[in-house]
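Good morning N.,

You mentioned wanting to compare the apo and holo forms, so I went ahead and generated the holo version with calcium ion. This is what I fed in:
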Amino acid sequence: MCRCGAVKYSEVVARSNDEVAALLQEYADLISITGGDAFRARVYEKAARAVGGHHADVAGLDLKGLQEIPNVGKSIAQKVLEYFGTGSVPAVEELRAKIPAGVRRLTAIPTLGPKKALTVYEELGISSVEELAEAIHQERLRDLKGFGPRTEENILHGIELLRSSGGRVQLDVAMDLAEDVVGALSEVPGCERCAYAGSLRRVRETIGDIDILAASTKPAPIMRAFTRLPYVTEVIGTGEKKTSVRTTKGLNVDLRVVPPDSWGAALQYFTGSKAHNIRTRERAVHHKLKLSEYGLFDVETGEKIVSETEEEVYARLGLPWIPPTLREDRGEIEAGLRGELPALVVESDLRGDLHTHTDLTDGLAPLEEMAEAAAARGYAYYAITDHAPDMAMQRMTDERMLAQRARVRELDGAYPTRGRRGGLRLLHGTELNIGPDGEVDWPDDFLAGFDLCVASVHSHFNQSRDALTRRLVRACENPYVNIIGHPTTRVLGRRPGIDADLDAVFAACARTGTALEVNAHPDRLDLRDEDILRARRHGVRFAVNSDAHAVPHLATMRYGIGTAQRGWLTPDDVINTWPERRLRTFLRKGRS
Ligand code: DGT
Ligand code: CA
Ligand code: CA
Ligand code: ZN
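and this is what came out, ligand included:
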């Protein structure tokens, strides 16, 4: 068979086959982790491989067709049909509920079996690959039964394999590490400036490696301090200008030290993106200048032009300073030349958070703690939006919801905040489930009692494109639905977004006065930057929300704001920057 034909074909069928393979593999892992029959786990593992390698799309097969795939028996075929029918498999959900997602993620490490994954979870409370890497570094694993220094080394190697294959890491992981490095290097005598650049400064949704820049006339002590940071596992290369290391987080960090008078040019260069830099270099040529990682130069005299700030560099190119989140060559140069760069929304513009949870459903903290933390962030208003009853595992009832509302009314205004003279305004809301036909959990008369409703897709992800589109449009047309939560439902690195006609959904949002969420959770960042740009052209409004399930999650807003900026949003586009009265008018929507 022609190779290119085969590649194309597999691209077409990959989606559903890969999804099913991942589901079966996960089920196999879950069986092992929960101490189930090893033989049964292997049966599912084999089936996963067979489906993943199957030549035709499994989505179109019936029970008989599925059983014709090698290693797929009746019970597995039935689960696959269930999956395509409803988007979930109860048997899998049941096991999922028993095990934290972090432990399941541990089994992605090729050198860590499920048994050992469960041991480190039970004995040391480790539930993420990052925590595991750190524990190994602190030599905390070797004392466990069945572990030793060799096991530690082995697992660490596996973590590196995992990282180098997948490559990119989540924004929050990279940000924590980068801020730590910048903090440490800023302390080194002779370090005049230090900052992170690259994709992290542009707040891309995932990060390949961290780029740190320092300004100094004496690079050596900074390089030395860098290679001695506690989480550095390997020095890949080190020199006068550049040092690269590998860290316990499996993430590489590049450090460049430049003379202070080139800081602006270097920061501009290493912030990128490459596409943006190509355009700025063109502008430089146009102005008889040369822009490189070494600085800005006059082409005729070869003289270095002092460029201590990025503003100076952009000014020499005839441009205003361009915010890093726009530097993707998506029209920012043209807008800059026309003097039409957007006045981007910033974190301090936010007056509230409109999608948050408490321990009434799957949150970790009680209402009081969440509200207090929201007030400490200086918000003027804060919405509590716990899950609605159609998500059966949350065991929500009308009574529980109404009791929460009574408490919310009691606490309204009770928390002093810098954002509002009368104390934090509490809004009572809910996160509805958009059912397979676009219906939601409660009838209109009950919905009318909420100050706002977020509505999200939480099941049936695999409906046809038409059905998914109709479903979302119908949710928009519900007069009580104010915000579509995490609109595509993607989970970075784990689940692709649903396949709906987003332009039709965006148009419906604009027409009905329904906002689209920019979910700030670094697992989601949904809508993503490119979809925000598209939605904006339809005239949609947005809500940048944390979807916090615990107090620390409130701070993930920074990633949501970064993503909103990458979608060119201004405060006027974002309803939770608005004063309360304007917000309340928007939330009334088409309600009578
Ligand atoms: P990443 O690390 O994949 O998340 O993405 P970046 O953008 O951080 O890319 P990276 O680390 O390879 O390089 C950092 C910046 O340095 C990049 O955004 C622009 C600049 N840069 C690196 N290599 C080149 C190049 O070959 N040409 C140009 N114009 N700029 C480059
Ligand atoms: Ca980078
Ligand atoms: Ca780099
Ligand atoms: Zn939520």
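The longest helix spans residues 3-33.

Happy to go through it together on a call whenever suits you.

Best,
F.
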